[in-house]
């Protein structure tokens, strides 16, 4: 049975929404105030704040308030568990596909030997 990783689940949940992915893409360019992140979404501020809360809960961003301005910054190293998991999955499937390829090649050789 696979080890349960709640942090990984939180990250995948956070990444599952296109609005949140768009916010992360913007934050990859540098810190931004909430109003700047909200502008292209067309969403009301409370909705944007909920999206940001999901990202923050997953550890993908951090926020800080300076006076009346709340700014956000991405935490790129928070994606490391996702990369580790994806690398493991890629390895599993590459091994399986290599075994399947070997099996198909063996079948093809056997059929070629059976033909007169």
Automatic annotation (TrEMBL):
<dbReference type="InterPro" id="IPR011991">
    <property type="entry name" value="ArsR-like_HTH"/>
</dbReference>
<protein>
    <submittedName>
        <fullName>Transcriptional regulator</fullName>
    </submittedName>
</protein>
<dbReference type="InterPro" id="IPR001845">
    <property type="entry name" value="HTH_ArsR_DNA-bd_dom"/>
</dbReference>
<dbReference type="GO" id="GO:0003700">
    <property type="term" value="F:DNA-binding transcription factor activity"/>
</dbReference>
<feature type="domain" description="HTH arsR-type">
    <location>
        <begin position="1"/>
        <end position="96"/>
    </location>
</feature>
<dbReference type="InterPro" id="IPR036390">
    <property type="entry name" value="WH_DNA-bd_sf"/>
</dbReference>
<dbReference type="Pfam" id="PF12840">
    <property type="entry name" value="HTH_20"/>
</dbReference>
<dbReference type="InterPro" id="IPR036388">
    <property type="entry name" value="WH-like_DNA-bd_sf"/>
</dbReference>
């Amino acid at each position: 049975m696979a080890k349960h990783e709640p942090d990984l689940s939180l990250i995948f949940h956070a990444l599952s929404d296109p609005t949140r992915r768009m916010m992360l893409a913007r934050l990859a360019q540098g810190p931004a105030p909430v109003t700047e992140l909200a502008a292209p979404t067309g969403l009301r501020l409370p909705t944007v704040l909920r999206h940001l809360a999901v990202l923050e809960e997953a550890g993908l961003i951090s926020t800080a308030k300076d006076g009346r301005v709340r700014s956000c910054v991405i935490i790129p190293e928070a994606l490391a568990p996702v990369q580790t998991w994806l690398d493991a999955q890629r390895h599993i499937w590459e091994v399986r596909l290599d075994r399947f390829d070997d099996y198909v090649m063996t079948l093809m050789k056997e059929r070629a030997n059976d033909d007169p």
